[in-house]
Amino acid sequence: MDLNARSRADNDSLRILAISARADIGGGPEQLYQLTQALAPAVQTTIACPDDAPYADRFRGLQGVPQVITIPHRAFHTRALWQLIRHVQAGDFHIIHSHGKGAGLYSRSVAAMTGVPCVHTFHGLHIDSYGLVKRQAYLSLERAMGSVTQAIIAVSQGEAKLLGEARLFPDHKLHIIENGVEIPEIFIQRDYTMPMRVLSVSRFNYQKNTELCLDIAAHLKEADAKVQIQVIGSGECFEACHARILHQSLGGFISLVGATNKPREFMQKADVLLSTSRWEGLPLAVLEAMSEGVIPVLSDVVGNRDTVAGGELSQLLFVSGHAREAATLLIALADCPPPRLKYLSALAREHVKSRYSATRMAANTLALYEWVRSS
Asked: Could you give all domains of the chain from N- to C-terminal order, each with its CATH number?
């Protein structure tokens, strides 16, 4: 689908209010950025998000974004709600599209107050860390909000299955639009000299399970493996992880870089991408790394397993939480001859290129917008 041609054919461009409760480094803001960029100029997207680095300024610099509205970071405030309601009433929007849990509370409330149809993308159900009472309360709230949501987007087949099992809304409201990423034109061939360079992209929180990287490093140290893990990102347990690396003398096998605004530069120098997540929607970091030819070694959870979709790369999944199994996979890759590694690298890139492009994601999203608008 040629989005620009469609825009020229229809002078009445779609006007979307996109809401995200995050604009810091993360997959959700990056997906919104890539979607908005790929939809322009066919779609005019006003974005409501926190005034956080780096994405608030990135959104402001995009074509097709007439305005960025500031809302609180991952918090629901009635003042922000009324601000959004006033913008919708004054802006003649066709659709409200929320990304993530916090944004969904705003979007469905605004939709109920204004009558503007709402599309919601979960980006992962994210209830595994909840206790029973909190889980039931949240699911009850989602069921109530589902009644004022015209369409729900699941970003992977695995996420769609979880949402269906939770019975939060009628089946006909659920649409699967897989995440997409920009595919680099240049494919950087690795030389695969040792030690093998392993990259992990993390937020150092419960979901990402970053501590498992240290357990994996301990097994690599035990085996004296020619493997080095580099972790980029920040979060609540960063300092504790750093202290443990020093205490256990793991520095020869793992290092923590901290947050970066340019993860692709690290991906282009990596041989393997390691994900230890307890759950995902469809992880952009994994897709981006694979598009750069980085071989994925992933925890076998929803979202991660969707990225390899049952193909040959699924042999590189490990049982979630099993550090020794992950280390064994990394050691086996380090022992592979370079031609085998180059084959896996090309396979990873071609898999993403054929299925997970940002262009495809945008075309499918635009089709859904038009369906909602005409319904």
From this structure: 3-180+357-374 (3.40.50.2000), 196-355 (3.40.50.2000)
